[in-house]
Structure formats: C-alpha cells, structure tokens
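Re: the multi-chain job from yesterday

Posting the exact lines I submitted so nobody has to dig through the queue logs.
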Amino acid sequence: MKQSDFKQHLDGIHDIADRLARPVKIMEVCGTHTVAVCRSGLRSLLPSSLKLLSGPGCPVCVTPAEYIDRAILLSRRPEVLLATFGDLMRVPGFSLGTLEKERASGARVRVVYSVSDALALADERKSAKVIFLAVGFETTAPGIAWAVKTAAERGMKNFAILSALKTMPNAMEALLQSGGVQIDGFICPGHVSTIIGSRPYEFICRKYCRPCVVAGFEPADVVAAIAMLLGQIEEGKCEVQNQYLRAVSAGGNPKAGLLLEEIFEPADAEWRGLGVVPQSGLRLRDKYKNYDAFSLYPDIKAPAGAEVSGCLCGEVLRGRIAPPECKLFGKKCTPTTPVGACMVSGEGACAAYYRYAPLAEAGGGDESPSFFKRR
Amino acid sequence: MCVAIPVKIVSVAGEEAVAEIDGVRRKIIVSLVADPKPGDYVLMHAGFAIKKWTEEDVREFNEILKGTKA
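And the result, structure tokens for all chains:
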C-alpha cells in the first residue's frame, strides 16, 4: 500500500468522524489486531472522538485460572507429560503458581510449536501420557481436531487434550449483552475468519445492528477496516464486510469446518472476564472421550480461588477500561512480573500497551514512525 | 496466538509437507487445504496450512509489508 493509500483512508476516517461529531467506539476483537494497533502507534493518528477498544480475542488471556491450576495438577502425575504452546507457561493459576515454576520444580512440561509436535512426542514416548493443553480459537482448533482424529486412527492410547478451545461470535454477543460498554462496530478476527468465514458474524448485524469488518493484521489493513466501519456507521448500515480478501471467504475453510464438526461439539465455556458464555466452547464428542483429559482424570479438580486483588484483566477483556487504567499496570504488573494473564501473552492487551506505551499513549509525537504521520 | 504467515510448499508426502519461508524449512500438515502441491503458497498457523494463497496474494502481502502497493 502506498503512503497515499494509507493517508487516503486516514483522511477519510477524520472526515467521517468530523461529520459524525459524536464519540465512536470500535472494538478490535483479536489480540493480534491489538498488537498491530499498539505497535504501529495507530491510535495516535485517529480522531480524538474515535476510540479503539481491545477485546477478548487473546486465547491465553481468556483462559480461566482454574484451567491453569488443573493443568499443574495434571503435570504432577508421574505418567503425564504436558505439551503446551509457550504463551501459557507464565500464566498464573489461582493458587498453584505457573507451569513455568512447576517445570522448574521437576514436572514434565514441554513447549511445542504445533499440536502435531505433541502428537510426535506421544509417538516417541510411549511410556508417557502426553496431554496437550488445547487453548485457542477457531484458527487453532482444526489442527487440534486433526491431532485427535489422527491419534484415534493410529490407535494411540497415550495422547489426550485438555480442551479450553473457544469460539468468537458468541463471545462478541456476550459482550453486547453484558452492557456497560459502548461498542459501535467490530473489527473481526482475520485468521479465525479464515476458518469460519465471514458469514457467522451476520447475526451480530441483524440482531444488534453493529457493523462488522473482517480485517488483516498489518496497520494498512486495520486502517482500511476502520474506514469501512465508519463508512457504515455514517450511512446507518449494519453489514459484514471483508477487508481481508486474501485470507477470508464468506464460507471459510470447508475442510476445517467439517473436521471441527466431526471431532468437537459446542459447549458452554468459561471466559476469564466474561464468565460462562453459552455454546462458546469446543468439547470432544463422546466418540473421542478417550482423548479427553477431563474424562480421563475426573478426580483432578483445582482448588477454588479468586483473582488477585486489584487485577482488572476482566474489565480489560470486556473493553471497559484501557490497560493503563488498572492500578497494577506498569507497577506491580509488568511483563517480567505479570499479575494477570493480559500481561503475560504477547497478544495480551496489557502486554501490548506496556511494550509499545510511547506509541500507544503518547499521542504520537516524535515517536510515531514517519510513514504514519498524517499531515 | 492466531498469527499466520505465508509459506511456500517444497514437497508433499501424504498429509505432511515441507514448507519454506526465507530459507527456513519445517514440516507442516496440509490436510486442511485441498490438493496441496509443491510450489503452492499457503497461509500457515501453528504448523497447519489453513488456506491456499495465490502468488498475487503473496505479492500483495509483501507489498503491504514494504508499504509499496501500487
């Protein structure tokens, strides 16, 4: 995209905001979008009447602390070898610490890049029970479905998953239903939509009259998506538009969709910050319960606990506050000493704000990249 | 965590393929896309190809990265 294209979108955003002459709040649902927005300093270039809210689209951030404690208890079983994405290692549970500390104490916890690596690990270590911590959204879920199906086809008995997989559209609805925050439109997650397509957001438009634009992850994509959303808002439209044409179709990835349907069924799921959201989780179907660590280890239950006093991750995930409004932000809670999950993951809103604070918070100034300077 | 990047398929063997980006190669699973072949570009997430990309898609992506889209 030429600088003039970027500038054209940005000028369009300012022109529409001037004409609207009212506060507009747009939520970027996905954590990868949050990082793109913070890293580029995009907020500093937007009109003061337009606010971008960070949403619940960081899977690590919305994973309940109870899940982490349960994973830690599983890792203490002598036969268990936990396999996990690295983001999860430093997320604190309620009372049992982190997987990182547990590994330092001798637990067998292995960081993998892909669930296929976890399956290969199970193939190599036949005496171990490899349990993969299945955390993610629709982008990640088909790969995990593939691993479960492959394990079943191969007759593997030493592989299982602990599913905290979640789906986005119902969580977006839960945000709108919970109230307490103005959301005038959604920037919808790009790679989730590669799998599910752009159609599943249509009910948000019909039922709640909020425009949705599926967007790519470069700043140029995001600024184009914001311009499209503001255009809809000005014209009073509520439609799903697709800015990310190179990765997203209306119907999504049919092979992935069929595989998800075969292996998983929708289930109620708990989201940190949102509580239980009906039908927003993915649970293994009964046919695959031998691969479900919840079924295999029903006695392992985490002790009850409460969020750390003062941690406002829940409010951040609902878009009710920006991370710097939390009193722990940047003081007690930093990426090296995270209190809440949003400061742990690279895609957490708190971590993104902390890392790129000068660009996100300082109103641009001399620290904005020259490419993005508007005038 | 939903990051995905375009990679080029070098070889295919059943559900597995070797893919390359900037000279780095790794095995990926290609069973989620139709008819993967050497030379195809795919969008890869966590070791899985999740969508085929045309050369035009890759060119657009690279041009956006460089800030030079015509």
